[in-house]
Design brief:
Blueprint lengths: L5 H41 L8 H56 L3 H5 L3 H19 L1 H23 L1 H8 L2 H38 L1 H6 L3 H37 L1
């Protein structure tokens, strides 16, 4: 948030509000819809063989159906509005923040001394702007809103769960520490492997850019296969780190789902 503008703070506030609104209304939407279904089940169970239904009973039934259906519709509208606010606001915030950082990053590069540039590969800068900043933007767009939505939704579900059945909710909460620990360890490993993967991709991209920019020289000395081999050598660590990251993600999600089951 250091490089955010006043408009970005407005987008953040709107996005948080939209995420919280969607997170609160999704559990409420399930409850109201369940009430509507429950009314039909109770009405059918109460009058299984009656061809003629008393008008009073039917009026009460229809009144309850209209009431809970209206609440379901309102919850659905609020849920949709919350999602729209979340996606629109956080995407604008991520776009503005990423562009601001790109300008500062480029300004920092071109203001360095020549000795600093001699020690680094120029192709790495372009690769980092193309790949690293894209991942940075993805972390701040709808994913940030999804995080807030899940946190608010989990808190709301917990409250509703204890209200309707505290014994079952207490049994589920007892397994929460295992899920939290697993998620924390999984996140640490993913961050480590992602950083290694990005570094390897940047190194491989610099090799590709060098070869393409000097393609005439490469063909003149028949160095195509040599450059290809060098590119594959730089690219192999990225594949290994990506494989390890996916393995950690699969193991962590498997443990979490097994714990919930």
């Amino acid at each position: 948030l250091k490089y955010s503008t006043k408009y970005d703070y407005l987008f953040i506030f709107i996005g948080i509000f939209g995420s919280a609104l969607a997170g609160v209304n999704w559990p409420l939407l399930n409850i109201t819809f369940g009430k509507v279904v429950g009314l039909f089940v109770k009405f059918e169970h109460r009058n299984p063989n009656q061809t003629e239904i008393i008008d009073t009973t039917r009026d009460i039934f229809m009144k309850d159906v209209y009431y809970w259906s209206a609440l379901t519709f309102i919850s659905f509208i609020l849920f949709v509005i919350g999602n729209l606010l979340t996606l629109y606001s956080f995407q604008l915030f991520a776009f503005n923040l990423t562009n601001n950082l790109k300008r500062r990053y480029f300004h920092s590069i071109i203001t360095q001394e020549l000795a600093w540039h001699d020690q680094r590969n120029s192709g790495e800068f372009a690769a980092r702007i193309a790949s690293d900043f894209k991942k940075f933007e993805n972390g701040f767009n709808e994913n940030l809103g999804l995080l807030i939505y899940n946190v608010v939704g989990a808190a709301m579900n917990l409250i509703i769960g204890f209200y309707y059945g505290w014994k079952l909710s207490l049994a589920i909460v007892a397994m929460a520490p295992l899920i939290v620990i697993t998620s924390f360890v999984m996140t640490k490993f993913q961050s480590h492997y992602t950083q290694k993967e990005l570094t390897a991709y940047s190194s491989a991209s610099s090799v590709a850019e060098e070869a393409i920019s000097a393609i005439r020289t490469v063909f003149a000395f028949t160095g195509q296969y040599k450059e290809l081999k060098r590119y594959e050598t730089r690219l192999h660590p990225a594949m290994v780190y990506g494989f390890k990251r996916n393995i950690v993600n699969a193991i962590g999600n498997s443990i979490n789902w097994a714990t919930l089951y």
